[in-house]
Amino acid sequence: MGEGAEFLENRPAKDGRGQYTKKFYHLQSKVPSIICKLVPKRALQLQEHSWNTFPTSETTISNPSFLKDKFEIRVKSVVIGDNWNDLENVFELSEEDLEQREVVLIDFATHEISDADRVDGEDPTRFRSEEAQRGPLRNRWINRHRPVTCIYKLIRCKFHQWPFEKKVTEKIMDLQEWMVVVFHQRLFCWMDEWFKLNIEEIRILEKEIQDELNHKRNTGKLIEMK
Predict the structure, then answer these.
(1) 226 has pLDDT over 50
(2) Domain 1-66+198-226: assigned CATH number
(3) Residue ranges per domain, the chain?
(4) How far apart are CA 222 and CA 154, in angstroms?
């Protein structure tokens, strides 16, 4: 059995609002070999539940078979159309949460990424969409282009495993920021592939990708991750 993402469910949510997905991530080959020797296999299997009720979504990632309630990543998102203002409290946080909150402003198009993450044809500062007639997104593009969509994300991370709490939590938060940048850079540069799709066509595309990834995992073909 291979590794990578295992899709278990992708269906309308039970309450009839939005889409629900469930995945397992098998990560044995994605961590240093010394860690694999120190921890059981189940410690390297993450479970993800996601509810997409556009313009909001919520995702939780946990490790129920090993860390149980000692580890959880929870991500809430809300999409605000044509708005680049800094809305102070989109998620209606308490005063206590506001005091602990760190705000990170990300311009996905011009955000610096490592050379290892650069892919030919996936640079928003160079890409021009033929279907949408948008791009390239260069310096100060936010002030020149309309519409501009702003996505607010609230990321909470819990990791209680002394003495690694602080270091692991910082690493997870850095990884979340990296994922936001790289995902949206690629999403923008793949625009001509999805721009005119309706929701039914998107579901068909999701099913094709799900089947392909599950086949690669079941046949032991690894997908490179950096």
Answers:
(1) no
(2) 3.30.530.20
(3) 1-66+198-226, 77-156+165-195
(4) 31
Q: How remote is the C-alpha of 166 from its chain's centroid?
A: 22
Fold designation for 77-156+165-195: Alpha-D-Glucose-1,6-Bisphosphate; Chain A, domain 4 (3.30.530)
Structure tokens belonging to residue 40: 């059981």
Confidence of residue 209 (pLDDT cuts 50, 70, 90): confident
Q: In Å, what is the CA distance from 176 to each residue of 1, 106, 203?
A: 28, 12, 25
Residue 71 · residue 62 · CB < 8 Å: yes
- Residue 156: predicted pLDDT: 95
On the 0-12 / 13-18 / 19+ scale of CB atoms within 10 A, 124 is buried
Please give the mean pLDDT across all residues of the chain: 85
Please give the Cα distance from 76 to 156 (Å, whole number). Answer: 9
Question: What per-residue confidence (pLDDT) applies to 26?
Answer: 79
